[in-house]
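Design request, tokens follow.
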């Protein structure tokens, strides 16, 4: 189980994702279990597999980019060092335990829904 989990709404400020999830884990085994649970949950919502998965060489930070949701998992030292909590302190946080958000499935390039969201002609 991850701890200190935060769900931060970044869509209006960042444009490449709707949410960042920040979580602290104790070790790499726990990180794998959390990653797998997130993957199953997001797949059930239609989000799919991550576009990118990355870890720093020291294992202090893992990143899983699901397009609309980006999961950042840290050990204690990594969470403090990278300080995404501080970087996004003024962004809205979601009370995910009481009102879980539903991320939008990522639209494929050429998808009419993706093209509609890019349409700026409102006449």
């Amino acid at each position: 189980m991850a701890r200190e989990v935060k769900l931060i709404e970044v869509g209006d400020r960042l444009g490449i994702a709707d949410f960042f999830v920040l979580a602290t884990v104790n070790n790499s085994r726990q990180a794998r279990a959390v990653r797998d649970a997130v993957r199953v949950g997001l797949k059930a919502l239609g989000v799919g597999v991550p576009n990118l998965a990355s870890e720093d060489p020291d294992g202090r930070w893992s990143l899983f980019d699901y397009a609309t949701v980006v999961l950042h998992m840290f050990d204690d030292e990594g969470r403090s060092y990278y300080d995404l909590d501080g970087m996004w302190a003024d962004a809205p946080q979601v009370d995910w335990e009481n009102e879980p958000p539903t991320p939008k499935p990522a639209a494929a390039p050429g998808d009419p829904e993706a093209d509609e969201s890019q349409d700026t002609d409102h006449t």
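Comment from the thread starter after seeing the answer: thanks! The helical segments are 11-14, 28-44, 76-82, 84-87, 112-118.
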